[in-house]
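EI: anyone free to look at a 612-residue chain?
SC: sure, send it
EI:
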Amino acid sequence: MMDEEVPKENLKTEEETRGDKDSSDTQGDNPSPELTEEKLEELDSEQLAEFYHKSFKSFSEGEIIEGIVIKVSSNWILVDIGYKSDALVPLQEFRDSEGNITVKSGDKVNLLFEYVENMEGYLVLSKEKAEKMKVWDQIEKAYNENSVVTGRVIERIKGGLTVDIGVKAFLPGSQVDVRPVRNLDTLRGKELEMKVIKLNKRRGNIVLSRKVVIEEENRRKREQLLASLTEGEIVKGIVKNITEYGAFIDLGGIDGLLHITDMSWGRVNHPSELFVIGDEVEVVVLKFDRDSNRVSLGYKQKTPDPWLKAEEKYPVGFRVRGKVVSLTDYGAFIELEEGIEGLIHISEMSWNKRIKHPSRIVSIGDTVEAVVLHIDQSLRRISLGLKQTEPNPWKMIEEKYSIGSVIKGRLRNLTDFGAFVEVEEGIDGLIHISDMSWTKRIKHPSEMLKKGDIVEAVILNIDAESQRLSLGLKQMTPNVWEEFFKKHRMGDVIKGKIVSITNFGAFVELTPGVEGLLHVSELDKERLTDPKQKYKAGETLTLKIVKLDPQERKIGLSLTAYLADKEKVDIEKFAPERGGVIIGDVIDKKTLSQLEKSKRKHKKSASPSTEK
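SC: here you go
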């Protein structure tokens, strides 16, 4: 039954219908054209009734029939289907998604004949069910013929998508694409081409696959591409995926790899700097393996290699400008143009500044001016200098100072081997530990100097090429050793103070800063096992110089030689003609013989080569 009462004016009486049919018969719709009016008059009532019923079409439930819209009312559509009474269809079935009526009087429509409503005498028809039945027939045909159907994605559900192909069907997530789709919501509202892979008409279940369609299309494209692809060819493709090492380009059925090293002649940190998924790009086929279907692609190869003319463009000594693109502990890389970079080593950044890291001088993104120091086109290397754009202060130092001149500066740093003095801003001179004192044995510069002190020193050497300046502190005073050797000779008698005693002898200070060695064999006539038993530090002795070595700065001293000489002088003074003399004590011939022997021994040990 209808939800609301059917308007009486929309129903035809049997007489009105008969009149319509009689009228139609006169227009050529009579099922028996050869039956004339004269013959009709000859028929009895039963024959006329039979003829009347045969003049109308007969329908069966579930049949799709065609009708003509007679009238469109506010709630109903009146349709003539060639029956003894017209059919009513709810107007709602003829509205689109926006509520607009989609038919008008005179339009032909397809309707499903559901059943006859005996109480009212009209037919129950459905446009919606007729369309669905027609769609099911089309779907079944597509399933049997393995043909493509088109549908619109309605919504995402558990496990996949609901798709409208005239009726609702299920598209599993695994069948959406050849690769997993992370966000199925992005497909909502889109039109897709699919195939029916499962069909159960009785239950109304339909399962679709878009993956099958894509695979078939890729297979077809792949076959065409394999037949035509050649190395060196420029082809178009779509960026399908991006990784850290490159990008995969869909060439139409075949994916090619565009490695990061083949993207640009210049520096590329990540492929995403140049490409985005979905971009259409032109690439060069570098290598193609038909057996494995592997394709290597290049992007930078579309333009000439900039290094081919680098030596002509960047000769040694040429000034260039570039952008800082990278910093390392040892220097900064400068991009001179796309694909050509040069290195400014940290040692080439400043003439006089002490640089611990290149970031103290330049930053990434800075534009700098530099000088080409060296270029090797085969190795693709260019050495640049930043400091060479300014005058060399070391050349000025060489012109300003001379060896032997005295400078004054602040003590900037102390090391195990010496002290650095700042002569001018950024220019240091080194006072080596061996040039700090003529006389002291210095183990560390801190024994004499302190960081921050202002000191005067003598310039010993200037090496502008190596940027080295050698200074001397002890040279500010005369060399006491040279003075000593100038004034003394072998055999001289000298007084000295014992400063230290060892098991092999005693060190004696002769003048400030000058020490000589008094060996244990020269201390006493008899061999002493421990000199400390007889002598003490601070004791003053009169000694004889028995050895002088200016090169090694060594002085040999002897107490026994001094005593022997002194005794001989005394003997010769008081008894030159006798073999012995009594002077307080008795000195016999044996004693004199020992003194003479000792004297000859020391004369022999005093080589003439040690004397000046």
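EI: DSSP finds ten helices and 32 strands in the chain.
SC: 👍
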